[in-house]
Amino acid sequence: MDQPVHNQDQEYITIEDDEITKPDSDSESNTKVAVPSYWQSGIFRNNNQLMLRRVEKGTSEYVNVARSFINGMRSFENHVDVVAIHRKNYKWSVMDEARAEAFRRFATAVANRNGGDPNIRFGWYGGFREEIRDILCYGFRRLENSSSSYGRGVYFSPVNNSNASQKSIIADSDGAMHVLLCRLILGKLEPIPFGSQIDHPTSTEFNSGVDDLSSPKRYIIWEPYMNTFVLPLFIVTFKANSLIGVRKERWHAMMKILLTNFPKYLSSSKMAFIKKLHYDFYKKKISGETFVRNLRIIAGDDIIREIIRVHNTS
Prior knowledge:
This protein is of the alpha+beta class. The chain is 34% helix and 20% strand.
């Protein structure tokens, strides 16, 4: 049975309860099962750990998620091409079943403290392809060196504002970009002022944060709850056709921002490695994919993400 979410989400997306419920006790959930090959097709085809199912075009599930994403892109909605949608399956591994069970239990606990309503909504999270892979395998990581403008936590944009999540994305070398659609336990929202450095609710009355109660652009799930109040469900892979003509300019502009700000976070020895890496890429000795992969190893995702967030909110 479909379970509708909050009114602002309900127009576009519903979630089937049995997608994240625990299998029957007589199932073979503890037995390793081979994942069908067609589940591994597309952008994330070589990642058996992710347990993804490619959502077929034309199905109601695909249409609902794609429509919600495109409508939320606002000014880009006529130029966005959804390349693929994958859905995380929580029945193919014991650890994933436990992750889904933890989400359900925390939803129940928050509901009990808030008059029966856990305030579950959907939110978009934009990131690197490798970062999204890591989130699906291991969960969100603690944010290091964080000076984010609305406190220390994971930021999500509302389901009707997917455009906001696009600001923190670095595209693949072929221009493909990826966002996660997650189910969020928001509970009672606390307005967080710009410039806040808190990393948890100011009182037990609240469960999560928001930049603006009347017109939210950011939901903040605090660090202590980032892997219990969040359940990733879909990866949407897309290309923004309106940006194709300037994609290289945008990519180089983002690299310039990162290279300018890295010295604030990194040692001189790491900066020397990065400059050499950038030179090799400029001279076409290495590919863009190799450059970005090694850049992430040297600098770390947390610092890259932080620089992008500070730039986008400045």
